[in-house]
Structure formats: structure tokens, C-alpha cells
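Key idea: predict the complex, not the pieces.
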Amino acid sequence: DAMVIQNPRYQVTQFGKPVTLSCSQTLNHNVMYWYQQKSSQAPKLLFHYYDKDFNNEADTPDNFQSRRPNTSFCFLDIRSPGLGDAAMYLCATRQPRSRNEQFFGPGTRLTVL
Amino acid sequence: EDQVTQSPEALRLQEGESSSLNCSYTVSGLRGLFWYRQDPGKGPEFLFTLYSAGEEKEKERLKATLTKKESFLHITAPKPEDSATYLCAVHPSGNTPLVFGKGTRLSVIA
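Result:
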């Protein structure tokens, strides 16, 4: 089945230790998104890619970076995680020039010790 | 500013007790309104897309409706497995991302 896959599902890191989260998709969608979601809050958009065009939300901290080496894969790098970065990180895809919904992956739960 | 407000924040129902969740929105042109279901520790699962006022969509015990200012998710005779957080999101016009509400946390008690 076509889907959005995130790895790992659970990630534990230490304060200040860089971490990379990955997302892959078999939907062949051009648009990919990274969201941060904290408990009982709405998903907060960090970045999105329209093909290889990168769009950074204005309030996304510099500590967060992203890479998209090809259509199928996207990475979220957190250079120096702080305690406040502990959250669920969600990847989503969408096919542009349509009004179709976004498809979400299962998420990566990040814990910062 | 585009905004989505969901109410109530939490809802507790007895099994079989029908109810509705509300999603109010203010947006500069609506390209679509989306309902998602999110189980604890998982990503949102798509339920419905609504595009224009008067539109309705149904899936099992769920029915979504849309007016020019709000959407309702009606749950008929809910079961415990319907317990989840239900998220509403709007897609404004232009090249802007989805705007999410904070969700309604639904608990259905047997």
C-alpha cells in the first residue's frame, strides 16, 4: 500500500546531542511537510517542500534544519535539542494543484533527556 | 488572520449517545476543510474533505457537514473504538499551508 513511513518511531536523545528523523513516501507526492506536535496542541508546521523548493516557516527555530535529497525522502535535523523540543514530529505529503488532503505518517516521538 | 477553533476541547459520551463536534473557522477564501482522527501516539488519519457550504460526507457512524463559518462532525451511536482526538483543518486560498484546530478529545464509555 502507498504510504508515509517515519523512522524511528521513538527517539531518545540527550540535551544538545544532534538527532535526525527520517520520512519516506511511496505516494510520489511533490509536497512534503514537517510538523511538530506537543501534547494536546495542534500540529505546528516547521517546513514544507514543493518539489525541491524549501519553505521555512517564519517562527521555526534555526536549530531545526531539513533536507530532501529526492522525491521520496525527507529528513529533519535538530542540531542541538533542548528540553522544549521534546514532541511528536509528523511528516505529511500532498499532491499539489489539487484540493486533496495531506497524508500523515505515524510520527516520531522525540524524548530529550 | 486565518483561524480555526474547535469545541468542546473534550467530550465524554456513553456508548450509543450521539453528539456533535464543532469546528469554527475564519479564513481568507476556503479551498477545503479537512477532518482527521488522531489516536494517542499516532499520526492523524484522514477522514473527510469538504469543499463548499452545504456539502455533507458520511463514513460509518460519522457525518461531516459544512457551512460558510463552521463544520460539524456528527457521531451517531458512538462506540468505545471511536475514542480519539478529532482534528479540523482548513486550507486557505493561495499558497498557504493548512491551519489546524487544537482538536476535540472524545472518550466513549461502554
